[in-house]
Amino acid sequence: MTKKCFQIALLFLLSFTSIHAQDKKAKDLLNEVTAKIKSYDNIVIDFKYSLNNAKENINQDSKGNVTMKGNQYVLNFMGVTKIFDGQKTYTIVPEDEEVTVSKVNEKDDNAITPSKMLTFFNSGYKYTMDIVQNVKGRKIQYIKLVPTTGKDQRKEILLGIDVQTKHIYNLIETGKNGTKTTLTVNSFKTNQPLSKNQFTFVASKYPKYYINKLD
């Protein structure tokens, strides 16, 4: 009986040590990704976004692009353009010929912005190394992220990282309701020549649009 207990304790200890080492390896890789992202003056990304829910028979694909510099960004997605100039967000909806202007507190942890999407994993998750895949000659290391709060509607997130470039390749999010969303980076460009007005909303470009100021 004592020998069996010892064996169980030893197996538990070995598995705990393995998990701890795995966690450190995952954390080190995430730190490298964060450092790489912060080293760039600007980032331009083209991406594909897929939403699937077999139970609800939902299968949607969309493409988009985003240009980021610091906390400023221009996001084009699903026919809508969002510009954040560092103080206000301008949401431009051509279908409605409307521009919504609102203030965003970038320090608010609940404020979702494109720049935060590249470093969201730094808090609020437990993480472990997952599988490695070869995608068109690129070695993609996946890290599994599990939210630490029960209120989060996401069951888990798989973050795919290009081992060579330390860039995020894709993000696969599984919800507790069975919905799976996948964001895949098709193009990741850095330090691009940007215009001085890249993140400036120019009202004269939208003369017939209704300007809806929320603040």
TrEMBL record:
Origin superkingdom: Bacteria
Q: From the record, what ranges are coiled-coil? A: none
Indicate yes or no for the key word Lipoprotein: yes
Q: Name one Pfam family in it.
A: LolA
Write down the CDD domains for this protein, in alphabetical order. Answer: LolA
Kindly indicate where the leader peptide sits in this chain: 1-21
Alphabetic keyword roster: Lipoprotein, Signal
Q: Which SUPFAM superfamilies match?
A: Prokaryotic lipoproteins and lipoprotein localization factors
Name of the protein: Outer membrane lipoprotein carrier protein LolA
